[in-house]
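At this stage, I put together a protein sequence along with its fold in token form, as given directly below:
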Amino acid sequence: MRLESVGKVLAERILDLDAGAEPREIRVLIGAPRHLPGSSDFFCPYQVLGLGDDTVRYSGGVDGAQAIYLAMEAVGTFLSATPEARAGRLSWYGERTLGFPVRDQRPHLRLVASS
């Protein structure tokens, strides 16, 4: 499913990008969750504006609350992987933590009992 916009904006966050002499604002838009067409599940659209890729993306969940949470997590994971965030050039109220949850990317370790 391709989306042209997030639709009704549920939440917006403005981040600061240290771009040298001209700091820029990065806007994060989270749309209101909606029913996934042909399903009882929901999806929540989101968009990051100002980092070059303004694609509208979405996360799905079994209900609106899960769709919102997974969209927030997807935004956090997306932002943390950008060259701007990795270089420490993105901030929110002066903090490098951008206020979004980030999905754990580490492989899960399995404990093996020794004999």
